[in-house]
């Protein structure tokens, strides 16, 4: 099953159609294994073959996509919160949840400025760096921090850096990052806490570092903290 999921993960916006040769090369699996998995995925409508013999994502995924959109769609009041944030602070707003050692963007509202960070709904990013990652890890146990550090380019040595970042975020009440994941990009993020007080999501602004000076960072943090409280009161569809 994991191998089949890995094959589906090869398809994205930049590679919407793949040949068998492409899939074998990208997956590193034997061709006989790839053909068997492709046959199963195609039989279940998860993959489709076009007129050139290339594989595309299949129509069965439309139903799952519709279901996921229904489950993860923010309530109207929460969508208004994100829209108002982007308008007031003129930066793109993202809402993330944690998936194991990754973070996934489940909602966004683009800011009005043409130069902005591009993270789309559904994009999966690492947890070893970035403002939103720190906000999501504020209550994380040591075992999770260790696993996150091991996924970083620095390996387990990154654990001490993660601890220091989280101590700083707890002291400030918000997390910041400058060029940690990609040079020239900065972020400010706060946790969104659920009914039991646990971190269930992270709300963040992201954009060019030139627009994230100290004064604006404090202003962003104030706006995000107020909005996080509003989101918690509005209720999030995935919170249990």
TrEMBL record:
PROSITE patterns associated with the record: HTH_ICLR, ICLR_ED
Protein name as catalogued: IclR family transcriptional regulator
Domain HTH iclR-type span(s) in chain numbering: 1-59
Domain of life from the UniProt record: Bacteria
The keyword Transcription regulation is annotated on this UniProt entry: yes
InterPro entries referenced in this protein's UniProt entry, alphabetically: GAF-like_dom_sf, HTH_MetabolicPath_Reg, Tscrpt_reg_IclR_C, Tscrpt_reg_IclR_N, WH-like_DNA-bd_sf, WH_DNA-bd_sf
Organism: Streptomyces glomeratus
Domain spans labelled IclR-ED: 60-237
Pfam families assigned to the protein according to its UniProt record, in alphabetical order: HTH_IclR (PF09339), IclR_C (PF01614)
Family matches, as SUPFAM superfamilies: GAF domain-like, Winged helix' DNA-binding domain
Keyword line: DNA-binding, Transcription, Transcription regulation
